[in-house]
User: Fold this.
Amino acid sequence: MYKPGDHVFYPKGGVFVIERESEKSIGGRSISFFDLISSDTKTKISIPKANVDRVGVRKLVSEKELEGHIEAWAPDLKISKLHHKNRKSRFETLRQTGSFTDMGNVIVTIHYLIHKTKATFEEKRMYDQIRKRLINEIQIIKTLDAIKAEDLLEGALDLAITREPVIREDEDGVPAEAVAQPVED
Assistant:
């Protein structure tokens, strides 16, 4: 599980540090909490230990996992072709999971839409929010300053939109997973 001093990702707020474990009495019941502070120290929240998984708190990805995710990023062309209201709903669902994979899918697809001048104002706003959170996570994982983490993310996004997703099939001919491949010129 988690312990004080661990960095965690909270989908509704980004990267936090577990400041301490605490007990609070609510309605006559003693409840165990994790007290979190945002990495910029501007926000403090308490999450009941029993709800940590339900609200999507996760450990930061490892440096190796980060590299693997970035190398596999590609725009989701299926989502990009949806009506903007349906895209927004799909993006919001993915973003709320807090999964690095899902947030990567959202940000790469919106990056693709921005370059095609088809992103809406709300998508650009979501893009900026996710971008800040990913930069913060990258900064901590790779021990970089904010500018270098931002440059790394920007380069990864630019490269990702040059890839096309390829659907692999398992032995039975059933699509198994999408894997990014470079687009041939």
User: Anything to note?
Assistant: Residues 44 and 71 are 34 Å apart (CA to CA).
